[in-house]
Specification:
The protein has nine helices and five strands, in the order αβββαααβαβαααα. The chain has 229 residues and is of the alpha/beta class. The chain has one domain: 2-Layer Sandwich (Nucleotidyltransferase, domain 5).
C-alpha cells in the first residue's frame, strides 16, 4: 500500500478534473505537447508563503501557439503578504484582490495541462508551492510527470551546462532575447523558447521520444550523483 493510500481518507474525493500522469511512450518529441510552467510566490517557504500567480505555455508540435497560453493571479485577501516580494513581480494589491480564487486557479491549471508532461526551471520550487496549495485545498499532489528544464538543456548543450545555471544564464548563452523578466507568463515563454531550440539538438543525439528523453534524463542525474559522491 502506497503512502497516498494511507493518507487518502484525509483528502477530499478526487474531482472529475483530476489529471492523469503523462505516459512514457514512443510519442515523438517533435509532435508532442509539453506544458511549461512558472509561478510567482510571496517568498521561498511553501509552508508559510503563498502562490501569487500561475502561468502555463504550451509547446506543441515544435511550435508555441499563442492561443495555448494561460495566466492567472490568485486572490489572497485573507493573507498578509510581504510587499517587497509581491512588487518585484509587479503584482499590486489591486491585482491580487481581483485574482482568481486559489482552488479555481489550481483546477483551471490542471485542466489546461491535461495529460501532458510539465517542465519548469528549478521545478522543485514550483512543485513545492503547488503541493502546499493543494494540501490547503484538501487535495494530494497532482500526478504530473515533471521534467527539469535545466536537465533538458544540459542534454542538448552539455558544453554550456557548467556555466549555465539559471534561466538568465541560458538565455544569454543561447542568445535568446526577451523583453521582460520576473513575470510568470513572460518567464514561461522565455523557457519555452529555449526548449524549442533544444528539440533539434536532442534529435541529433538520438533522443526522439518521451521514453528516450526520460531515460537520458535519468542517466544524466545518475552521472551527476556519481560525480558528486
Amino acid at each position: 500500500m502506497s503512502l497516498f493510500d494511507w493518507l487518502r481518507p484525509l483528502y477530499r474525493p478526487l474531482p472529475a478534473w483530476w489529471p492523469v500522469r503523462a505516459a512514457l511512450d514512443d510519442r515523438a518529441l517533435l509532435s508532442d505537447r509539453w506544458v511549461i510552467l512558472d509561478t510567482e510566490t510571496s517568498g521561498l517557504q511553501p509552508a508559510r508563503d503563498r502562490l501569487l500567480s500561475l502561468a502555463a505555455v504550451t509547446l506543441s508540435q515544435a511550435s508555441l501557439p499563442l492561443a495555448q497560453q494561460w495566466y492567472a493571479t490568485l486572490d489572497h485577501q485573507d493573507a498578509a503578504l510581504p510587499a517587497g516580494n509581491v512588487l518585484i513581480h509587479r503584482l499590486t494589491p489591486g491585482l491580487l484582490a481581483g485574482g482568481m480564487p486559489v482552488t479555481e486557479g489550481l483546477e483551471t491549471l490542471a485542466r489546461f495541462v491535461g495529460d501532458a508532461p510539465v517542465l519548469a526551471f528549478h521545478h522543485g520550487h514550483d512543485r513545492s508551492f503547488l503541493r502546499s496549495a493543494l494540501l490547503r485545498a484538501g487535495y494530494p499532489e497532482l500526478p504530473w510527470r515533471w521534467w527539469e528544464v535545466g536537465d533538458v538543456l544540459t542534454l542538448a548543450w552539455p558544453d554550456l551546462a557548467p556555466r549555465s545555471k539559471t534561466l538568465d544564464d541560458w538565455l544569454t548563452a543561447l542568445q535568446v532575447r526577451v523583453d521582460e523578466r520576473h513575470h510568470a507568463l513572460e518567464d514561461a515563454r522565455a523557457t519555452a523558447l529555449l526548449l524549442l531550440k533544444a528539440l533539434p539538438r536532442l534529435a541529433e543525439q538520438g533522443i526522439n521520444t518521451r521514453q528516450q528523453l526520460a531515460q537520458a534524463i535519468g542517466h544524466l542525474r545518475r552521472l551527476r550523483r556519481w560525480r558528486a559522491s
